[in-house]
Design goal:
Radius of gyration: 21 Å
Strand content: 5-15%
GO molecular function, one term: transferase activity
Largest sheet: 8 strands, mixed
Strand order of the largest sheet: 1-10-6-9-5-2-3-4
Keywords: Transferase
Helix content: 40-55%
Shape: globular
Number of strands: 10
Protein name: Glycosyl transferase
Number of helices: 15
């Protein structure tokens, strides 16, 4: 059971009484008559071979308030796509698989590239972007959820709680972010969120003052979660980052487009575990090293758009302020874990902080040296302006892949 405080600038939905999932689902079924719901699942083919996605599909089979499921499939050849069609065929909901590496979607990608509108790199951002386009093209859903496909602790309560704030027609929220305690296997996880994002935001506030944007981000219990829901209309105008800054980028976009009164977060799970990324201290292009670099750059870019002037010397101050703040938090997290009988390796925690501190400097250097960097994929409203018939073409391509020969 979580606390009941509303101490940020967005509404917080708590889990105050462990309400049975059946009660939530009964209401959601009623809501779906007025506000049809869909779900986006960005997936690598390799995730079809693991236990997490099998469990997720088994749980989704029991859900009757979701009308549409959109699966984005990456890194799959023809035989693997056909296997995916069979794998997901047991879903009773209307479902479609976007074969992102298939010839039809690749042809669309090539045409977009001619106008410099195509995603610049493969990855989750590109996958989610194409799925968002298909959701707009199908027009079947007014409320849309999204979650990852590697959640080993998945339970259908997660989806019900994630969808409720957006699906309830009496509420006026446009976007909802899921959060949870990153505790699993007797360990405290979530190092990038705990030891990089939170202390970095607090360090930035010390340097630049309590900007509305920084207070906004700091209001999220877990800003890096891959679980959120939104009105379908939100998908049309947001620019989705193509790198590891996806979650921070999406939060920045909805902050730009909507009043904070229309944004919220919800406690969706007591425990949560998924595939863990290595620290990768020797490789800045992989693991948590790459993730921390991309997140820092995303924050610098957003601050620049708000008129904050960032000098080269600022990064040294930011690194020092961050480092002290993060070390203090390590002490707090260690004591909290001890009281709850959890394991925390203080040595590895400090190693992570040292890597993140260097990432803050390296990201600053990259930010200053690449002023023309364009990490965002174009919004679908812009794409439709350049290619008025593209959504229809995307819809037809996905239908052909799912129903005919490939």
């Amino acid at each position: 059971m979580s606390d009941f405080y509303q101490n940020g600038i967005i509404t917080n939905f708590h889990n105050l009484g462990n309400r049975p999932v059946e009660a939530l689902e009964s209401e959601l079924k009623q809501f779906s008559k007025r506000r049809p719901m869909g779900l986006i699942l960005p997936s690598l083919y390799s995730e079809l071979e693991g236990p997490a996605l099998t469990r997720i599909v088994d749980q989704l089979k029991e859900i009757d308030y979701i009308d549409e499921i959109i699966i984005g499939l990456d890194r799959a050849d023809r035989d693997q796509f056909l296997h995916a069609r069979d794998f997901f065929s047991r879903l009773p909901q209307h479902h479609r698989i976007l074969w992102n590496d298939g010839p039809r979607l690749s042809a669309i990608d090539q045409d977009l590239a001619k106008e410099e509108l195509a995603p610049q790199a493969p990855g989750k951002g590109r996958n989610v972007w194409f799925c968002s386009g298909y959701a707009l093209a199908s027009g079947r859903s007014e409320a849309i959820g999204l979650h990852d496909c590697d959640i080993v602790t998945y339970d259908r309560t997660l989806l019900a709680r994630m969808m409720y704030p957006i699906a309830n027609p009496r509420f006026n929220y446009e976007f909802c972010k899921g959060y949870y305690a990153r505790v699993a296997g007797g360990k405290l996880n979530g190092r990038v969120g705990r030891l990089m994002v939170t202390p970095m935001l607090r360090a930035l506030k010390k340097m630049y003052g309590p900007l509305d944007y920084l207070n906004y981000l700091d209001s999220y219990r877990y800003p890096l979660s891959g679980e959120f829901s939104m009105r379908a209309s939100v998908l049309n105008d947001i620019r989705i980052p193509s790198d590891w800054g996806l979650e921070i980028g999406v939060l920045s976009e909805v902050h730009r487009n909507y009043s904070t009164k229309r944004l919220c977060q919800v406690d969706i799970a007591d425990t949560y575990d998924h595939k863990h990324q290595p620290l990768s201290p020797e490789d800045a292009s992989a693991g948590l090293n790459r993730m921390s670099l991309d997140i820092a750059k995303a924050l610098y870019r957003k601050l620049a758009t708000l008129g904050v002037i960032i000098h080269e010397e600022d990064f040294r101050t930011l690194k020092a302020t961050y480092y002290r703040t993060a070390l203090d938090l390590i002490e707090s997290y260690y004591n909290d874990a001890m009281m709850n009988g959890l394991k925390v390796d203080r040595h590895s925690e400090e190693q992570a902080v040292e890597l993140f501190a260097q990432a803050i400097m390296d990201a600053g250097d990259a930010f200053l040296k690449n002023p023309r960097d364009k990490p965002f994929i174009a919004s679908w409203s812009r794409v439709q302006s350049a290619f008025p018939a593209l959504l229809e073409r995307l819809h037809d391509a996905v239908e052909q892949d799912n129903s005919g020969d490939v």
